[in-house]
Design goal:
Blueprint (H helix, E strand, L loop, with lengths): L3 H22 L4 H5 L9 H19 L24 H20 L3 H5 L1 E6 L2 E6 H25 L9 H8 L3
Antiparallel strand pairs: 1-2
Helix pairs in contact: 1-4, 1-6, 3-4, 3-6
Length: 174
């Protein structure tokens, strides 16, 4: 099982990487961010939106917010839904969601992580230890951010180090 301390490090890494990639994306034009580049969610903007959709869906499940359609979070209907077409608003909402996820993670205990997470998805009940889903959220983020960094690299834009250990080293005093 994952420890609350380890999940806290992953939450910090999530914020660190999102801030880094959104800052780099802000140097692109809106057209460049939204251009279909053949990625699974087509564009940099589309992939950012997907990550926000997924994180809000999982955070809702973690917080016990019922999803009206039994699949996604309130107001979310598909994994490729564009929540925000305006980049500044998308960036702001990403930061708000990262803060909410980090605050939720900060309250976790080993006992809570071992308890089941139960929710309904596509009409079917899903149940597994909470830590499985929390680990999935951070792994999912890393997966799609890897796609985004590839798109940046193809554009000749260097995202810099994306290594967890780089963030951990930055956190060290002195």
């Amino acid at each position: 099982m994952m420890s609350p301390e380890w999940l806290g490090a992953l939450a910090r890494y999530n914020v660190w990487m999102n801030e880094k990639l959104y800052a780099l994306a802000a140097t692109l034009s809106d057209e460049e961010r939204k251009r279909d580049r053949g990625a699974f969610f087509k564009s940099i903007h589309g992939t950012f939106n997907h990550l926000l959709v997924a994180d809000r869906t999982w955070l809702g499940r973690f917080q016990g917010v019922p999803a009206p359609d039994g699949f996604m979070a309130p107001g979310i209907h598909s994994l490729d839904q564009e929540l925000y077409s305006d980049f500044a608003e998308l960036r702001q909402q990403r930061a708000l969601t990262d803060r909410a996820l980090s605050a939720w993670v900060a309250e976790l205990t080993p006992e809570r992580l071992a308890q089941p997470l139960v929710f309904v998805r596509r009409g079917k009940k899903s149940e597994s230890p909470l830590w499985w889903s929390v680990a999935h959220v951070f792994n999912h983020q890393t997966h799609h951010r890897g796609q985004i960094t590839t798109l940046f690299t193809q554009l000749g834009r260097d995202p810099g180090s994306t290594d967890l250990v780089a963030m951990l080293r930055e956190e060290q005093p002195g």
